[in-house]
Amino acid sequence: MLRRAVGSTVPGADEHASRSGRTDRGETPDEASGRVEPVSRVAVAGLAVLAILAGLAFGMFTAVLGAPTGSHAAGSGHVAGSGSTPPSVAPNEASATAAASPPPSASGPAATPTPVPTPSPISLVPAPLTGRLVTPEAAIRHPIAVMIDDLSPARPQSGFSAASIVWQAPAEGGIPRYMMVFQENIPTDVGPVRSSRYYYIAWAAELRAVYAHAGGSPQALATLRNQGNGQLVFNADEFRWGGSFHRISTRFAPHNLYTTGKELRALVRATGSVDGTIKWPWKFGPDAPMAQRPAGGRIEVSYLANAIRYDYDRITNTYLRSVTTEKKQIDAATKQLVAPKNVIVMLMQFGPLDDGSHKHRLEANVIGSGRAWISTNGITIKGTWKKTALTSPTRFFDSKGKPVVLTVGQTFVQVMKTTDVVKFVAGKPVLPMDGWPGVRPI
């Protein structure tokens, strides 16, 4: 048997040995077997020991390479944390598992992160006086109307940029005055603040506004005493609410009386008015596409003490305003150009007010109708204005009697005498130019 294992037998030798009962060395099978057995046991024992040692070495080597640092198990954190033994895996699988799985936390299973809620987007609504998209809170702010000086020493005035609507009309001596109406925006500085006139109360009454002023004509003051508690407006006279106004040192009186948006908002509560839904009939639409806007165009109106011009700017779709003593009118509070989206010129009958003061004050037929020009998107529409009652809004219609649609944004209303001359110069349509659309006048 041993010789066959090493391949040194002679053909037919096994068969001969089995018949004769002897090996080729003359030994019987039992004698040969007794001689070989000790050698085989030693060899097998040696091989077994080597195999055991090799297996232990291989296992230790694999454990060192495959086990994560600081961990006694290659299984999941849950298994390690619970103290049970993970199932055995092949060396390659163990190595791959260890490489793919991050080491478990020393304190136990990792906590599941708390999901962060996504904030809901703020829904915006149109502001009633401009159509601008604002927060619901801003859309219900109670309107505040402020009388503003327009004598030359009062320029430049503060507050234009934040106003939703600006009214301008003649007063005594040919010196016009402004009334800025603030609604969705809260201004910074506002002024110089001047005195009241009855026809301005009529426009402020359209919104039952908080009406801020410094004194007024006898006609205006009598109206405010009788109907200034919310019937027409909420009277915010500087003579009573002096703490909401202040004088600045850089100008001379009476052109140095100012207020602020914060002080005006405080007057809303102090006068008994409250924020709430505002019903306003003016309609607003988006800016016209660039290709539909004309190039150039202007509007010119003049009072005795102030000549005003609006130059249409096609790029911004606004009307850049110029006044006497200022090439381009600016808001002194923000340093921004005064440039409304809409300009309305309306003609109204004015006459002398016989109030016994001999100050040549005026009165106006604010209730009724008359001619009007509505300029928006660079185009001027000839139409009419109409006001049916003291608290009814002034509305504007085109030549067919349909309500005009203004562009979203600020509106200036120029109220002129029926005898005043107003001038409108139309812009030119534009055609595309090669490589640069919409810039070539026809």
Indicate the topology.
Blueprint: H1 2-6, H2 13-20, H3 29-66, H4 77-82, H5 91-100, E1 125-126, E2 133-134, H6 136-139, E3 144-148, E4 165-169, E5 177-182, E6 189-190, H7 198-204, E7 210-213, H8 218-227, E8 234-237, E9 246-247, E10 257-260, H9 261-270, E11 283-285, E12 298-303, E13 306-313, E14 318-322, E15 342-348, E16 350-352, E17 362-364, E18 368-376, E19 379-387, E20 395-397, E21 405-407, E22 411-417, E23 422-425, E24 430-433, E25 436-441
Parallel strand pairs: 3-7, 4-22, 7-8, 11-21, 15-22
Antiparallel strand pairs: 1-2, 3-5, 4-5, 6-10, 9-10, 12-13, 12-23, 13-14, 15-18, 16-17, 18-19, 19-20, 24-25
Sum this structure up briefly.
By secondary structure, the protein is of the alpha+beta class. Helix content is 22%, strand content 26%.
Estimate the helix proportion, in percent.
Answer: 10-25%
Rg result: 48 Å
- Name the CATH architecture of the largest domain: 3-Layer(bba) Sandwich
The number of distinct helices, counting runs of at least 4 residues, comes to 9
Number of domains: 2
As residue ranges, the low-confidence spans are 1-40, 61-102, 434-439
Q: Quick check: average pLDDT?
A: 81
Q: Distance N terminus to C terminus?
A: 118 Å
Explain this structure.
The strands form 7 sheets. This protein has a 10-stranded mixed β-sheet with strand order 8-7-3-5-4-22-15-18-19-20, with helices on both faces. Strands 14-13-12-23 form a 4-stranded antiparallel β-sheet, with no helix packed on it. Helices cover 22% and strands 26% of the residues. β4 (165-169) and β5 (177-182) form a beta hairpin. It has 442 residues and is α+β, with helices and mostly antiparallel strands. The protein starts with a helix and ends with a strand. The protein has 2 domains: 2-6 and 15-100, no CATH class; 126-442, YerB-like fold (3-Layer(bba) Sandwich), CATH 3.50.90. It has 9 helices and 25 strands.
